[in-house]
Amino acid sequence: MKLHWQIAIALFVAVALGVFIKLGGTQESAFAEGLTTTCVFLGDLFKNALKMVIVPLIAASIICGIMSLGSDRAFGRMGTKVLAYYSATGLIAILTGLILVNIIRPGEVDLELARQIMGQAETSEEFVDKFEGRGTSDLVNIFLRMLPPNIVNAATDNGQLLGVIVFSLLFGFFINRLPEALRDSQKSFWEGVQGVMMKITDLIIKFAPIGVFGLVTPIIIRTGFGAFEPLLWFVATVLLALGFHYFISLGLMLKYLGRVKPFQHYRAMSPVMLMAFSTASSAATLPLTMETVKKGAGVSDRTASFTLPLGATVNMDGTALYECVVVIFIGQIYGVLEGFEIGFVTQFTVVLLALLTSVGVAGIPAASLVAITVILGVVGLPLEAVGLIWVADRILDMCRTSVNVFSDTCGAVIIGRSEGESGIYAN
């Protein structure tokens, strides 16, 4: 059975079992507690195994990718294409969310429902403490993380991959400037490291269905679906915007820029999408993303090794879209309760900040909430408003991560095609 079917079955069983326990009111039973404990253990074990290979895999892949580019001109050409693609798709995603949230207006509800939604914020004190003190200075930290004072600490800091990526880019770039003998020895070493890490990744991915079951089951048992009712239109708006970007915007780019059949790419990337949905982490999905894009789509190792590790950290279409919709939604709620107005200038500020803060957001679950608090502070909305959407954030986090990762795969295909690669979906 193919991997994506195994993961899909694991997801179905996890949701069915979680809903059965939740609807039966047996969350406190010994069976449910034992199942939750076991699933948390399995899920953490699987995530830890993936995280174990991320840093050496990213470093080796980027260094090999840069070495394979050869000349400075090739490096600059590829870098320009990557930057242009990430900027364009991020802006398209944000504008999609902005248009839909202004059309649907999920936050413009009657006063009683607005108060009911506000009641969701009562559980947000722990998150307010966590994000207290965030501000526009956090934007500067994105650039500071690019050049960490200690690369070893950056590698061990969960989710902070930007410094590792920049260091690896510089390392690979200057290897090409070494004398030929040294350059060849470095190339052999790093290609060997990359090969070993891919073998380890292959082994870990075989256990993906068990890991997915362990990750998803506790979420369904704990939250169920009833908590989404007061936020139904908000959730619908986010899902509709993500779906539009996923199927329409990226689909058209695949067809006209990548010159591939969109359905063929959706089908080939299905294991990656299921993994991204289950882990809610672009970084944790990266090993499978790289393997599938190279083997399933036929993108060269040279292009995949350069674009995908970068995309896992800086290309966050779904996150940027989500940030925009959340802030406008919260502004609409406060407009009903307190007369808060969201004019053109405010919305333009939200678009700009969503694009900036989505770059470098750590590839870990719920990291975008930090970016949202930054935007809330700038536009004049209270920090505790982040609690309004927390109840729905985990499921939406899984959905937007899938969009983030899929955009990375589209970028690899489109850039590979622009580089004249003939092996992309050649069969």
Structural class: mainly alpha
Largest beta-sheet characterization: none
What's the alpha carbon Rg, rounded to whole Å? 22 Å
User: Any idea how many domains?
Assistant: 1
Count of β-strands: 0
- Corresponding CATH superfamily: Sodium:dicarboxylate symporter
Average of the residue pLDDT scores: 82
- Catalogue the unreliable spans: none
**Share of residues in helices:** over 70%
CATH class type: Mainly Alpha
The fold-level CATH name is Proton glutamate symport protein
Q: Could you spell the SSE succession in H and E letters? A: HHHHHHHHHHHHHHHHHHH
Q: Give the count of helical stretches.
A: 19
End-to-end Cα distance: 21 Å
What CATH architecture would you give? Orthogonal Bundle
Proportion of residues in β-strands: under 5%
| Coarse shape | globular
Describe the structure concisely for a colleague.
This protein is mostly helical. The chain is built from 19 helices and no strands. The mean pLDDT is 82.
Describe the 3D structure.
By secondary structure, the chain is mostly helical. It has a single domain (3-418), classed as Sodium:dicarboxylate symporter (Proton glutamate symport protein), CATH 1.10.3860. Helices cover 77% and strands 0% of the residues. The protein is built from 19 helices and no strands. It has helices spanning 3-23, 30-69, 72-104, 111-118, 125-131, 137-144, 151-156, 162-175, 180-205, 208-223, 232-256, 262-268, 270-279, 282-295, 301-314, 317-338, 344-358, 368-379, 390-418. It is globular and about 75 Å long. The chain starts with a helix and ends in a 9-residue tail after the last helix.
